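U., I forgot to send this yesterday:
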Amino acid sequence: MRSPASIESRKRFNKLSVRVHSLRLRLSQWRPHGAVGCLAALLLFISCTEQDAEQQTPAGFELLTGDETGLTFRNDPQMDEVLNVFSYMYFYNGGGLAAGDFNNDGLPDLYFTANRDDNALFLNEGNLQFRDVTVAAGIAGQDSWTTGASVVDINQDGWLDIYVTQVSGYAAMQGFNQLYLNQGADANGVPAFREAAAEYGLDQVGFGTQAVFLDYDGDGDLDCFQLNHSVHQNGTFGPRERFDQQGRHPLAGDRLLRNDGLPDGVGGGGFTDVSVEAGIIGTALGYGLGVSVGDINNDGWPDIYVGNDFHENDYLYLNQQNGTFREVLTERLRHTSRFTMGVDMADLNNDGYTDIFSLDMLPEDPVILKQSLAEDGFDVFRFKLGFGYNPQFSRNTLQFNNGDGTFSEIAARAGVHATDWSWGPLFFDMNDDGFTDLFVSNGIPRRMNDIDWINFKTQDNSLPGTEPATKPSDELEYVAKMPQIKLYNKFFQNDRHLHFTDLSQGVTGAATSYSNSAVFVDLDLDGDLDIVTNNIEDYPYIYRNQLREGGGKSARDSDAYLNVELVGPDKNLNAIGASVVVFSGNGRQRVENHPARGFQSSALGPLHIGLGDSTTVDSMLLIWPDGTYTRLDTSRYNRTVTATYATGLPKFDYTSLGKTNQFAPLADETAGSGIKHSHTENQFVDFNREPLIPHMVSTEGPGLAVGDLNGDGLDDFFVGSSKYERSALYFQNPAGRFTSPEVPAIEQDSIYEDVDAAFADLDNDGDLDLIVAAGGNEFEKQHLPRKQRTYLNDGAGNFTRTDVLNGVYATASRVLPMDFDGDGLVDLVVTGRVVPNDYGRIPRSYLFRNRGELQFQDVTEKLAPGLASLGRITDAKWADLDGDEDPDLVVAVEWGHVAALMNTGANFSVVELSDRTGWWSCVEVADVDGDGDLDVLAGNFGTNNKLQPTVAHPVRLYVNDFDHNGREETVLTYYVQGREIPFANYAELLKQLPYLKKKFIYARDFARATPQELFGADAWRQARIFSIETMESMLFEQAADGHFRSKALPDRLQWSSIHAIQKMSDAADKTRFLVGGNFHSANIEMGWYDAGRLSVLTIDKQLRMEVNPIEGEVSGQVRRLSTLDVGSDRPAYLVAFNNDSLRLFR
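Result:
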């Protein structure tokens, strides 16, 4: 054992290594001129890194390597001509890891698998020292290729067994899964194992990844779910339906094996494959890399989440309680990771519902990010959707359980969407504060997605006029040229508000690695959970938890814990599937006993419950796998208790487990209303013309307008359409039902994109006429579909097209009627959304004065010059903001402010209401706090995205003719780790700006270049710049002096974009608003904004806010909301979705 002095010396060395690594990274991004500049930069960065190291928040863990612990195992797979990363793409996925007390001495031991070498069993000898007993235990495993390891007492004899997964039947990889039965320990405490897979029917042959044991059918014994992966050589590209028709693949399909009892020696008992009858998908598409078990819907039955790599959907299997599962992923989740690796489940916010986390490969380092392959293009993405695959994005995904069977993906909001090439996520309470934290294992020895390497492999990267690059003579030489980048494993502390803080650099002795499988387990029995990783090309790492320095005492009184040793029924002695529920001031914690977690890993031991402040604990219940429960003793903590199953216990009421959701009291009444209208978006793709814009602007319909069109005292409405579809009028009858007659004047105008509409009496004849705003982004200049249309009403609801805005061509966002000058005639505002095919230019907006006789005069420059070039206006509302009895115009501007054009009586002057710029998308005006003046609610794109702008680090849009071809380009930038970089990837920029290919032959140089180096210092300096400083949706409260104070809307409304806010009827001195959003037309690198739900926002007089979603799956892309009266004294609400059906709620 090393001396304390040598260990302290190593700690200092490791701290210095961390600083040097940070210094190298910073210097790779800094290019000072000359020797003096280099020296100054070096001194500056040494100073900064010293300061950073001192200020880094401690993670509470210390890294111990194999030299210190005796864990001298190495997984170091060597390639040959037959088996390598080209013949088997999962060559570097790493080995498995299992933890359990295999010799029953009270200390958890460790079992590591190696891909091509011997596996290893290490006995825990205390004080974090381990002894290799592999040979004596007889558990070295088979030759060929080994992956995951699972701990299970398969024969319920009280000795833990190990089930090892093998890859076989491909590329010279042979063998079968092994079941090592524990025969007990000898006098020296060394357990002996006997291989018995065939005896139990578990000698599975296939592309094995990991096995999970669970009681899926509720018969009391443990069944087996075998996760398998696939290879591209299986012909795994094509429509999903085709693979469904082909049926189960003999090697790649996942399998469910039912436990039929202990083998009787004559063919009875053992495990039986019931995959088909149980509903388990087993096609060649199953690239299974991650599997997790948990009770997703709080019914007491284990459900299964399977994470699939590449294009295949992940699977979410809901247990049907009858021996079958139903796969429901596309019903419950809106998108997933694209290259799903490991997965885990836990309740992250103590609301009693289980959330799901999956890992992908999105780099967090800006240099690695920009030299790695990125997302598919928009066309390929749509192509995959057409082939039946669900939406997938290359990033980690955190699926928040909404408690009603649906999930909202919030990884970016939580700060965990990018951890690089990650493998195993583990949810557990690192600091015993009562909230679940997150560990992520990281790194791969060869980065196969490196752009330069891919180009080197597939094409000649030589400079023009130079000799062609020398090509390697064999495949292994290609592999040797793949980049190698070790990464830090990630430690995230739960901040209790569905957000995590990265403390990875605060690990004592932090070092990089290629870490794959990982477990958490209390190795030193001090009452906190340590972490073990199985690494490639390194000894295993142990991260010792420093929360308790010995003696089992808490570092603080608030760090209480309880370990629960489970003694289950005869057929499930370790009570797999049991859970502990804590009711406390922290909410409702639930910790489930499922040993297999993360990636190719399993750990079985006492269930560890972090409690935080133990004085807030009300009760703790242990729910057994059969649904009965035991009340645990809460009189003392910071100890291990033993809980033993008994028959005759009371049944647990699972309805009490999750917090009761307070849904808004609105019901969908569309079915009985007669409304049968669906908006179908045309397939125009803005990115084909302007590849570098952040999102499309051609999907912002349909428009919606409400009014009494035939003078019968009932509300009717207009709903718009996209190009080549038909807009419609709906008339209400006295019974509260709607009918839609043919209106030839409207139907013949199907070439228009009707993004907004309004009813107003344009000709002063006492009825409502129709004004329709033409939007979209397809047509340019004076093309007919850019005309703004008006239809005159004959009083009976019959309309004739009579345009009053002749000569006005615009891609509009809103049309707003109002008598702004008090002359009794309705005037019009038309707001400009964009300039088609020229996103960087500001569109023109218009103010028209009604001169009578259907004559409208453009008075913008005369009366509202600030309106003409205010910006890319997304929404506007008329309201008397200053209480002077004339209407002002409140506007939302993308790449600008929420602003108001204040009506002075003589003209309009622009006043900024927001203190920060944003992608403001909608506004609503109301007296929110009841103080007699009007406040403003403004929708934005939310905080659940990659951009995360601030005042110090804004998102910017640079506009200039960077390639001097006579046409301006737009370059979007954002900050990653404090550095401003282009959002577009290497391929996108080279396609739009071909000169960059000559300037930056290699992606690695592109990735390290500053924007000035990329685009030219002069062109960059001379570019027009637009910026956004926040993406939060806001309430702007008007103070007594007329100024506006900003207050962010609740977190739940920041999970996605908001595109419509509608004032509702007030309730009990509270103001209510219907809020909707979501947006699917962003750049694929940006991903979908889809975590929002149609919700009711309630605000009291003190500006306290509450959000209540509408019950059910109401999560499409809301574009318009309108109130209308339908046959009773309760108002109803029309909800217009883009590319979906119009719905009526009341």
